[in-house]
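Mods, move this if it's the wrong board.
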Amino acid sequence: MNARSDYWFPRRRFGWGWGMPVRWQGWIVLALSLALLFLGLTWLRPLYGQTLFVGYTALVCAALVFICWLKGAPPGH
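Not the wrong board. C-alpha cells:
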C-alpha cells in the first residue's frame, strides 16, 4: 500500500481481513464502535438482558465490518 492511499484500514499482512486504522477516519470509526459496545454493555444489558445485548453487539460488529469492507484495502491472503 502506498503512502497516498485513501484506504482507512490496510490489508492484514498475514491472514484475511483488515489491520488497525491508518487514517483518522478509521480511528473515529473504531472509537465509535468501541464506545457503542461499552454503552450497550453498561446500559442495554442491565435493563433488557443478555439476549438483546448479543443482538446489539452483532449489529455493531456487522456495521464495523461493513465499513471496513467499504473503506479498507481489499482483503486477501
